[in-house]
Amino acid sequence: MKYSILIFFIPVVLISCKEQETYTGHKEGEPWELIWEDHFEKNSLDTTKWNVIERNKADWGNYMSNHVDCIWIKDGLLFLRGIVNPDRTTDTVPYLTGGVNTKGKFSYQYGKVEIRAKLENATGAWPAMWMLADQPKYGKYPRNGEIDLMEHLNYENKIYQTVHSYYTLVLKKKDNPPHYGTTQVNNEEFNIYGMEWYPDKLVFTLNGKETFIYPRLEDADPSQWPFDQPFYVMIDMQLGGSWVGKVDPTDLPVQMIVDWVKVYK
């Protein structure tokens, strides 16, 4: 009798584990459930949710700073700014920029993210909303991929929505499938930049409308789809770089004004 009880329970445990391993996230057509948000209603940045992005050696990170004029909140809005450095005696870079991320504080796998924001124009301005892997599951960058919800350059009236990975950057497989799309945008208004993330595709959106899809390929190199792990959110007002070009200091300050950020599953 004792042995028969043990035999009875073993398959139940195995079935339970199998169900957890094969979870595939949100199904299309189902209602979304809000799991994380920030409406920037406090007087300062909520450090339980956000980190200030530090300066780094990447092309976009040359001027990142925690300077008070680069990141501030007013009337329920987050202002991320690019400015001329007001004091180069202690920090010698010509410009300063502000950015925030949720690394180590919030990440998710599969679901929907939306960011309502207004973009300002300037020569050399490069505001971005993007996502990186929370842990190095497949190794060093770009093995774990990068999801760019929105990038805007200079005075253009369009945005770029892009996927980067070892597959696109090292193997140069940028057209099978196409790894980016562009969409017209009115920068005079607030817009909602978003992405729906499924186990088999990334669906980029603007104001709730589908703009670009990046699918998972069944017969491609495995590096084509590193998007099977949690990612965190980044929002930053970048200046200058090999893609956007030189900065015109007479156009500064420039800012990205963020109303809210929401993540659903």
Summarize the structure.
With 265 residues, the chain is mainly β. The protein has a single domain (25-264), classed as Jelly Rolls (Sandwich). It contains two helices and 16 strands.
Written description of the protein model:
With 265 residues, this protein is mainly beta. Helix content is 9%, strand content 38%. A hairpin with a 2-residue loop joins strand 12 and strand 13. The radius of gyration is 21 Å and the shape is globular. The N terminus is likely disordered.
How would you summarize the topology of this molecule?
Layout: H1 2-21, E1 34-38, E2 51-52, E3 71-74, E4 77-84, E5 95-97, E6 99-101, E7 111-119, E8 125-133, E9 146-151, E10 158-164, H2 166-169, E11 180-184, E12 191-198, E13 201-206, E14 209-215, E15 231-239, E16 254-264
Antiparallel strand pairs: 1-16, 2-6, 3-4, 4-5, 4-16, 6-15, 7-12, 7-16, 8-9, 8-15, 9-10, 10-11, 12-13, 13-14
